[in-house]
Amino acid sequence: MGQILKDLFATYSIIIGIITISLIIFLANQIGKLLKERQMNSAIAIILGLVFAYIGGRLTGGSKGLADIQIFSGISILGGSMIRDFAIISTAYGADLKNLKESGFPGIISLFIGIFFSFFLGAFIAYVFGYTDPVELTTIGAGAVTFIVGPVTGEALGASSDVIALSIAIGVVKSILTMIITPIIADKIKLDNPTSAMVFGGLMGTTSGVTGGLVAVNPALVPYGAMTATFYTGLGSLLIPSLGYLIIRLIIS
Length: 253
Known about the structure:
The protein has 253 residues and is an all-alpha fold. 78% of the residues lie in helices and 0% in strands.
């Protein structure tokens, strides 16, 4: 009987993956209710996902977290780049073209400010902690941009796996903090209209963090923040391994 169930779960691993992630989201929502902090649900879900990934890695010694356990292998598909990119792109649907045009110039300026501010801040902190190699500084700084730009930059420049992992961790921390802080500061920074949402998305850049935070503020603002946050990731992946690396080399040399 046990073998039959094991074979069944392995055959329909994608369904088991969906069920597992649904249970994690449900658990995160329940914890959010207990804490009376609805805006933290997304952050709690990410933390739970990281915990389960760590447990899966420790149990199997693999590199894919919980997906290394056969019955949970479908999670690797749900966590793959195709589903991730589809989810990122889908957040832009629902945006009004008129509002996008009105927010265009501020949104573009915020992209460049947000990318290079995060990058140089991350590189500076890495330097303070003893990193002096331009490739390592650039990769860690890229992680402060987003947890996607970090590994993209690291792979392009030939950084070590440890440094790439560190850049991803930095990006994840930024995403979680953005989710938590956004509802808290929304009133203070007047984050209540499409233009401010686009500028905010351009400054922060982390799509998951921006969308998670804006959901707690006003779901109608999500497409606008997600729009510039998505461009932020693409533009960062283009600029940081090239222009960013050259600037760091000039500064270090």
